[in-house]
Amino acid sequence: MDDLFENFGRIQKNDPEFHEIFKNFAYGEVFEYSVLDEKESVLVTLASLIACQSPKAFKKILLSAVNKYVTPEEVKELLYQSVPYVGFGRAHNFFGVVIKVFEKKGIGMPLENRSNTSAENRHQKGRELQDRYFGAEMIQMMNDNAPEDQKHFNRFLEGFCFGDFYTRDGLDDQQRELITFVFIATLGGCENQLRGHTQGNLAVGNDKEKLISSITVILPYIGFPRSLNALAIINEICE
């Protein structure tokens, strides 16, 4: 998959030494230790670049990947899924990047609406997914134990995060939960949430090997400290 690095020509021209080192590691050696397929590898890479605020690298990889490894619809859903986790302040620039790449590739916009909820049922549908991922007892306990002046945050999680986004078509449960794990691991400092979404990944069928592979693939972009922190949590939860 070293074709994903083909648009980094300026680095290759001006610093061929670094270009060769990074390409051999990030697009060669790393993939020898990953069980992710090509689509999953691209999705977690793009997810990590959103969370670490690297729109230029995101654009260069997306130019190589869209319509080859990932569909425009999957890119759209990746972007939507990022908003509850990295916040619109971080995601905003990437909406513009995706629009420019799609225009350059001749991809017509807007893409098809993928929503499966309405204003009336978004909370119900979101709660159903929360229960499936994390267990109805745990979600109910979280809601019951929230202070009265903070219960609206759980309401937001139910309706906005899960009801508005997780219920959409375009990515399956395993893909959504895997990229969510990557968003949180890349952000760093969100260990409790990373524990929860490690469990969520296991619940939807992403095993320990797949989680380790996702960290393996994004290590070149997030560095060793955050990667090792994520691995420690994977080991803790999977015991």
Helix amount:
over 70%
Given as residue ranges, the uncertain stretches (5+ residues, pLDDT < 50) are: none
Task: Give the DSSP E fraction (strand runs of 2 or more residues).
Answer: under 5%
Mean pLDDT, all residues: 96
Q: How would a crystallographer describe the biggest sheet? A: none
Strand elements, count? 0
Oligomer: single chain
Order of helices and strands: HHHHHHHHHHHHH
Tell me the radius of gyration. 18 Å
- What structural class do the secondary elements suggest? mainly alpha
Q: Name the overall outline.
A: globular
Taking the alpha carbons of the first and last residues, their distance comes to 33 Å
Put simply, the count of helices is 13
Features:
239 residues; mainly alpha; 13 helices; 74% helix
Structure, described:
This protein is mainly alpha-helical and 239 residues long. Helix content is 74%, strand content 0%. Helix 4 packs parallel to helix 6. The mean pLDDT is 96.
